[in-house]
Amino acid sequence: MAWICIDESSRRIEDAEIELCNLLSNHMPVIAVITKASSDEGFRIKVQNLLKQAKNVIRVNSVAKTLDDGYVIKPSGLIELVDLAMEIIPEAQKSAFAAAQRVNIQQKKNKSHAIVATAATAAATTGAIPIPFSDAAALVPIQVGMLAGITAVFGFEVKRAFLSTLVSSTITGTGATLVGRTIVSNLLKMFPGVGSVAGGAIAASTAAAVTVAFGEAYITTLTYLLKNKDISEVSEIDILTEFKQRYLK
Q: Does the N-terminal or the C-terminal CB of the chain have fewer CB atoms within 10 Å?
């Protein structure tokens, strides 16, 4: 994807920019971005008419600006630009773009919810295997992989050792309810016929529910932390502490 940026204060589009738009559009989606936007006066329509191959034209002001009369032009257009970019960028690049951008956290959440859904399906399939306690060892890698995907989408460094610790330490503190359901479902698998089927059904639903709970609590945790701190200020202790509190709720 390409963004062709044009300063609104210039009020003109160069022939080279038109040629560049035509050239790039043969290979990738193009968005025309009017920067330092403060007063349109028909300039957006002009850009749209001249850069015909652009998917859309977005006016953006990324930094607040105070005019001589004291009027403040607030930042605008950034979320719209990110949302449009997510719509037109090829599917293979969506996760990378969601991780790289820091404007719209909702895009990060949307991609993360999809990761959770995929992991929950895998966990349910694993939990339904009619072999007693076969799902216990297989679920942890699924959940760690899910958390790694969410971590990457939110722009954090992926450390699998930390994520493994997070999963194992949280499971230890989940209480008797989850453990009891897991034991009962696995014991049912020991009985042929109906017991095996019932045990598999219970284990599948339990595995999926636990995985969804893990994923959604982790998404909520990272969202909360990024609202209050810059990504460089968030420590592993912050994530672990906040995650445990949210998951146990």
A: C
